[in-house]
Amino acid sequence: MTISAKQRRQIKVDDVSYLWWVTEDLEEFVGTPALSVCSSDRRLLVRYGLLQPNDLRYVVVLGPRFQGLPDSPGPWRRFRCPQFGSPVTVTPKEVARLIRWCTDAAGRAVAVDYRGVVLPDQGQRLNLPT
Q: What is the pLDDT of residue 127?
């Protein structure tokens, strides 16, 4: 399956091509704007809700590649994250920042549930960059 490039922007980060777009989310952050990013090989696919509260903010990982973690056999992993963009504007600079955070091999992200609550045994890993 391919992802249409129609109404999506391209960005190249560290010699890898990505598509990104902002739409109203109909699945995870229902009725709010969400930023989606997909690598050209479709291994990195993430969705980030732009209107999330600071204390529960997370990114939804839909593809198998994320930070330094082993490839996931299934979708819909969620990880606490810093803020990217704003509710009204998303710039290519912020998209590149999200991509670099998602591909950082240091693996500092903490798994959360669908409400943004840290999963058991994850609290000690919380070390978010600002």
A: 46
Integer Cα distance of 89 and 94 in angstroms: 10
| C-alpha 61: how far from chain center | 6
CB atoms within 10 A of CB 41: 10
What is the C-alpha separation between 50 and 61, in angstroms, rounded? 15
> pTM of the entire structure?
0.82
Q: List, in order, residues 6 or more apart from 81 with CB less than 8 Å away.
A: 48, 57, 58, 59, 101, 109, 128
Residue spans of the domains in the chain: they are 9-125
Token pair of 32, please? 């709010």
Query: pLDDT band for position 27 (50/70/90)?
Result: confident
